[in-house]
Amino acid sequence: MTPNAASASSGPSRRSFLASTAVATAAVAGGMPLLAACGGSDSGSKDGTTSGKSAKKLLPAYVASNVVSPDIPSKNGSAMGFTGKLDLAGLKTSVPKKLGKGSRVKIMSPFWGTPPKGDNPYYTTMNDLIGVDIAWQNQDGNTYDEKLGAVLASSDLPDVVVIPSWNMGGKIPSAIISKFADLGPYLSGDAIKKYPNLAAIPSGAWQYSIFGGKLRGLPQPAPSVPGIVPFYRKDVFDKEGYELPKSPDEFLALAKEITRPRAKVWACDDMKWAAFEFFGVLSGSEKPLGWNLADGKMVYRVETEEYLEALEWVRKLYAAGVVHPDAKAANQGTAGDRFTAGQVLMYNQNISDWWGKMAEQAGQNADFRISGMDIFGADGGDPTLWAGSPAGIFAFVNKKASKTVVEDILAAANVTAAPYGTKEYMLTNYGVEGTHYTVKDGVPTKNDKGNQEVLNAYVMLASPAPTIAHPDLPDIAKEQVEWQQRMGAFTKKSTFWGMQITEPARYTNLSNDFEQLEDDVVRGRKKISDVQQAVSDWKKQGGDKLRDWYQKLHDTNGSAQ
């Protein structure tokens, strides 16, 4: 975790999450059967979803937090923003009474970095505040898929398992349904009021935590605004007088103007993610969001003209020589490093890089300035953006856990979901003052011990409503939230937004090869016609049958609109 980290919850894809500072900012940021038309009851087939009246019966009551008021309220699906200095003396208390009863709880979670020793001051202080003896079983986040599969296949599960949405492929959803507890009796309706910080989590995040007809997940809520930002070097743009492009054609023309290979300057890195936004392509990070009912027909993202147009545009960037050559190799360095080095002036990444790069460069390049360009439409007009999932990471409780253990886990989650500006939030995200961080002029700064111990653990259990706050760089927090609010005005919810859908197992890997094909096409190794052929094969191999399945799902459940 980087110094001064606060929260910017969002739902990036697995690749963008691992390649950015999203881990550092992630925390800052009763049983109804499955519907009969979608696979039968909870004891039978596991595919389908729960929506409408059935879902509402499972949802916790929403009670907005009034402990702290944001400087910038949420709007158009954005995070809320805090843009002032931090006043430690003015921190609020959101958990006045210790709810934990002293259980020993084992939690398995992905971890990026070197895990600290289990008896470190951060863990012991958090456990004392919660009243629960939590032992972390941290696993390498880069290979978490492998460990997760093995653990879920065994009969010896930890009390809690954290599962990011990008690790939910294959048989994982079925394992979630069969292995983890129904939290409905503890949280549905007014029951959640025992845990006020959990009650302040938006209802959309809770609905997305329904698996197999029961409320099973503790969510990390995310803004509905797309999380990928087309970044540019504002300091260089201002110096050189470059004007921000307002269409794909203007982007390409500007890219040609910027690129000077002899000076080792290229306009951009791989821009595929941004291209999908420019051309209005349905989300691809989670399969249900890739489906949409348009003009009475159920359509998958790879079948659309927008998808082909986006790939063709990125292919033109590569063909024009305006993309850094290391991006073409795809395994040479990182786009972010090339950006800070001034070798590329535009790249796309998770919104957390806005603060991450500014904080990283603060002591190295005083003139460095990153900013995000507004997303434009394919014709130069307003864009069509698609909402991301309302939550991106979940913690699940072992089905065999006793009532006391479940309640102690919820007591812990109620602390980690405390809002920004509270004592519980500071301890969860920064550790112990003096031991893990110091505060000067209202800016908390982690020391080496803080960077070693206060990361990737308690923040993974549950999070508050999406929040962006950077006491060290309040202007960046303001820019991030305002960008989200502008883009949120053009963001739509696709047909299955907010529904946690489990596809029939025979279809789960059907579209796995498209990402590699996309990368090959934009780099000139394959052709657009190869994509069209792959789409034709996808239809024959089950895509058309999967379309029928989604159509039936919609006919039974309706949509998120």
From TrEMBL:
Location of the protein in the cell: Cell envelope
GO CC term, one of those recorded: cell envelope
PROSITE patterns registered for this protein in UniProt: TAT
Signal peptide span: none
Main subcellular localisation: other
SUPFAM superfamilies named among the record's database cross-references: Periplasmic binding protein-like II (SSF53850)
Family: Belongs to the bacterial solute-binding protein 1 family.
Protein name per UniProt: Putative aldouronate transport system substrate-binding protein
Species the sequence originates in: Streptomyces luteogriseus
